[in-house]
Design goal:
single chain, 346 residues, 8-stranded parallel β-sheet, magnesium ion binding
């Protein structure tokens, strides 16, 4: 089976609703929100664009006939719902032009959409430019996936030049750059490293959703890395880390987003937008495109209600919503020297 097809098949097999770090985030209810549903906007601003909704279709797949069809449906979904969309890692098309169509189909189906090209952190500036040009991308995602590479039988083993390559790409391309994890989360130290080389938009992509170490371990004949299946920093822990980093940078959350309430909670940590992969992919694979479009539109409507519930007229207002942190989130704050009470005292 093609590796990309295998990834999709395993992601579907391992996808199941489960508890994650968002369950240990509670909204402190205010009984008089002083808001009006009809005057509420869920729009957000990122990369110089106004996005009509504060979530998007994050990087998933591409590189085979089957995944090309999935990308086509995801592009239609993005077009019909007004969502920004990222392709899967476009490196496959740069190595093998015969699979380029499985990525360019996203632009073909969504010619006016905001589309992100995705490449790995070990990519050269030349390949970054080629990836951007291939789909006329509005921005570039660079993904960090060291644990996945080490578990992947055919994965990379040398990460020593990642930071210098990222810096070269940030300085050398003509579109905005996002650096994202792939479900292992980010510490404040990593975020500082990225800011120091010029990165201004960061997707912390924490654990709690799809585990690529679990997927890659399932592909091995000897599954000796099963202890890494839950490796990483959770999405909420990563957001807590990011909020300890001073300075101006755009923050994106992804990893384990199950529904509109998870999107809402992530936004309350001050992120610009929220990326969703597995929940959308599973909906598409189990049901169909029409049902997935309906689900996304339902989430958009639910977010308007949730904003209204807390008195937020705009996405920016959600940063003022008081939060109560419990469980591992509270433990993480105590261990890492983070004042968790500041979230409840907003």
């Amino acid at each position: 089976m093609d590796r990309k097809d295998e990834h999709v098949s395993l992601a579907k097999a391992f996808h199941k609703p489960k508890s994650n770090s968002f369950d240990d985030v509670r909204i402190i209810h205010q009984s008089i929100p002083l808001s009006n549903y009809d005057e509420t906007s869920i729009a957000t601003h990122l990369l110089g664009y106004e996005l009509s909704a504060p979530f998007f279709i994050n990087a998933m797949t591409g590189g085979s006939e089957k995944t090309g069809y999935i990308n086509q449906e995801l592009a239609i979904l993005a077009r019909e719902t007004g969502l920004m969309i990222a392709t899967g890692s476009i490196s496959a098309a740069l190595r093998d032009p015969s699979v380029a169509k499985t990525f360019t189909i996203v632009r073909d189906e969504n010619p006016e959409g905001i589309i992100l090209a995705n490449i790995g952190a070990g990519s050269s500036l030349e390949n970054a430019k080629r990836g951007i040009d291939l789909i006329q991308a509005n921005a570039l995602q660079i993904h960090l996936n060291a644990p996945q590479e080490l578990v992947m039988p055919e994965g990379d083993r040398d990460f020593s030049n990642w930071l210098s390559l990222i810096e070269e790409i940030v300085k050398g391309v003509d579109v905005p750059v996002i650096v994202k994890e792939v479900g292992f989360g980010m510490s404040r130290q990593t975020i500082h490293q990225l800011i120091d080389v010029g990165v201004t938009t960061i997707d912390i992509a924490g654990s709690g959703g799809t585990s690529f170490t679990q997927i890659e371990n399932a592909r091995r004949r000897k599954r000796e890395f099963s202890y890494l299946n839950d490796f990483g920093i959770t999405t909420v822990q990563s957001l807590l880390e990011a909020n300890e980093v001073p300075g101006l940078f755009n923050l994106i959350a992804s990893g384990g987003i199950r529904n509109s309430y998870d999107i809402f909670k992530a936004l309350c940590f001050g992120v610009k937008t929220v990326g969703i992969s597995a929940s959308i992919l599973n909906q598409l694979l189990v049901n169909d495109l029409e049902d997935t479009i309906a689900l996304v539109k339902q989430w958009q409507q639910e977010l308007v209600s949730l904003y209204t519930l807390v008195g937020a007229k705009t996405t920016e207002d959600l940063k003022k919503v008081p939060l109560f942190l419990t469980g591992e989130n509270k433990d993480w704050c105590q261990a890492r020297g983070i004042d968790y009470t500041k979230y409840s005292q907003r």
